[in-house]
Design brief:
With about 375 residues, the chain is α/β, with parallel strands linked by helices. Helices cover about 40% and strands about 15% of the residues. A seven-stranded mixed beta sheet has the order 2-8-7-6-5-3-4, with helices on both faces. A four-stranded antiparallel beta sheet has the order 9-10-13-12, with helices on one face. Strand 3, helix 7 and strand 4 form a beta-alpha-beta unit. The longest helix is centred in the last third of the chain and has 24 residues. Pyridoxal-5'-phosphate binds next to helix 6.
């Protein structure tokens, strides 16, 4: 045996091979995904209704020959349907591996490593994770007490030199809606890109007249995120898209995305989902009706909610109701009803409750009735 092999000293490997920012960051913690079908799952904002048969039927027409070949690289069939749906051009659409990939692409494409993104808090906890992975800082700007955007938001963003600003609308986890007029003003006042994360926009009542897509023509710094995960009941599919000025979409489409970022199966199903949009629209209306009922019934227990335009409500649990939010979350979980609790500064007395089917919502209300007495 040579002396080199005989050494019982461990080799001199470094402690970690990770880049410094990766070693120092924390990963995203997703909401619980329990296996049991008996669980009433009101914790991760899925649409409670399954995608309709004509969409699922698409799967049956996928053949081995279709999968043998690479998929259309930019999902052009989907882009055309999405362009028709939103009355824009195909050039204004980039299909992505769900909304999360669009967020990563936006950071990769528009933010220098070492620069800053701005986030109106509270919001989506994936944003700081993506920023940390990129080596970018996060300027966290707190929303007002009523969760509206602060008046000096644009000033704070400009002062902080943020190259990308992320606004969830309707916001998560509050459900509150910022007007298009306010978004327009913001887009015009900030130096960088404004990403409007519309993951929940499908649940906004059409009577609100909310339509931020109209901004993209005159505002080449506005990027809108859409996903099929929530509104179209396809969280398991992983398909989303960005809408923006062609000049904003182009670098992501032609340079920074993976060469085949969406797979053939998801392209087919996503195209069918938009083609059969009226089915999904019926579920959005059903969710809105149940949202109104939940707000009324929770109120009757002394549990107040925000004015939500999404498929969830943020409910403030009085300290003397079932021991407060954190305890109520645990008690409901023991009863097989999952809701979301955030152990965070401004959210510690609140629960985010996804709107389920009428039966699921009634089960939650019945549990609350028992716990209230
Ligand atoms: C769900 C969600 C997304 C995107 O989710 P995907 O499943 O990756 O499409 C983006 N932003 C917010 C705020 C969300 O809640």
């Amino acid at each position: 045996m040579s002396s080199a092999q005989a050494s019982d000293q461990p080799p001199d490997y470094p402690m970690t091979y990770e880049r410094e920012n990766i070693a120092n960051m924390h990963g995203y913690i997703p909401g619980e995904q329990p296996d049991s079908p008996d669980i009433i799952k009101l914790n991760t904002n899925e649409n409670p209704y399954s995608a309709p048969d004509p969409v699922i039927e698409t799967l049956r027409h996928i053949t081995g020959e279709m999968l043998r070949k690479y998929p259309p690289p930019t999902a052009n069939d989907f882009r055309q349907v999405a362009a028709q749906t939103h009355e824009v051009a195909s050039d204004n659409i980039i299909p992505t591996n769900a909304g999360d990939e669009l967020l990563r692409l936006a950071i990769t494409t528009f933010v220098e490593p070492g620069a800053t993104i701005a986030v109106a808090e509270p919001s989506y906890s994936l944003y700081p994770v993506l920023a940390a992975a990129h080596g970018a800082g996060v300027l966290e700007i707190q929303r007002n007490d009523d969760w509206s955007l602060p008046r000096n938001l644009a000033q704070q963003i400009s002062d902080g030199g943020a190259q990308l600003t992320l606004i969830v609308n309707p916001n998560a986890p509050t459900g509150t809606l910022t007007s298009v007029a306010d978004l327009k003003e913001l887009a015009e006042a900030i130096p960088g890109v404004l990403l409007i994360d519309e993951a929940y926009v499908d649940f906004v009542d059409p009577d609100q007249g909310y339509d931020a897509i109209q901004l993209i023509g005159d505002h080449p710094n506005v990027l809108i995120l859409r996903t099929l995960s929530k509104g179209y009941s396809l969280a398991g599919l992983r398909f989303g898209y960005g809408i923006g000025h062609a000049d904003l979409i182009s670098p992501m489409l032609t340079k920074t995305r993976d060469s085949y970022n969406t797979d053939l199966v998801s392209q087919k199903i996503a195209t069918a989902a938009l083609t059969h949009r009226p089915f999904a629209q019926k579920t959005w209306e059903a969710v809105r009706q149940e949202r109104d009922r939940m707000v009324r019934e929770l109120h009757a227990f002394g549990i107040l909610t925000t004015d939500s335009h999404a498929n969830f409500v943020l409910a403030t649990i009085p300290g003397d109701f079932a021991g407060g939010a954190a305890n109520l979350y645990q008690t409901l979980k023991q009863r097989g009803i999952f809701v979301r609790y955030f152990d965070l500064d401004r959210l510690g007395d609140k629960l985010r409750i996804t709107i389920g089917t009428p039966d699921q919502n009634t089960a939650l209300l019945n549990a609350l009735k028992e716990l209230a007495t």
